[in-house]
Amino acid sequence: MILVSVGSQAPFDRLVRAVDEWAKHRGRSDVFAQIGNGHYRPVHIQFTDFVDPSEFKELVRKAQFIVAHAGMGCIISALELGKPIVVMPRRARFRETRNDHQVAAAKCFGEQGRIIVATDEQEVAERLDHALAMPETERIDTKASPQLLATIQTFLEGRCSEYGGINFNQQISMASPHVEPLVADRTSMSRKILKNKLDSDRKTARD
Question: Distance of alpha carbon 110 from its chain centroid, rounded?
């Protein structure tokens, strides 16, 4: 199963339409999408408007790979379970988000090779074809690579070069209230990973 998620803070019809068209041309019947309250209703894929956090995690666990907006909740969920993820960032100029923080998130994680980035809907089909051939990836835990840990740390502290000074806590505050628990859970988990890694490094240094 291929899982698509746009989160719950706003519609993302560009992404949903692009995946729907890809499924049509590839003859895929195994795509399930969470599409929010968008205007576009898919024709060639199964969909629902929203799923609760526990159901979402189970869907991620079952999925071959994930397709999503570049929200930290979706990215961290995929990395936590070692699932490849294709992201297309929302754009402020299309009024899909308040600013281009998702562009920066995609850039940060894309530079480490942790996610597959489609910059716009024209690139989605090629990226999805690529993801089909990918195995599951490294799960994030205390043994994650230093580069991945550094990327998470950088993003949580709001130091991405194009992030405009907005840190992750501010990103959460801009989201709608019903998306905050899932995103906050992922943020807490990320900070715990980093803390455990630092504690482990300190213990090793003492020994």
Answer: 11
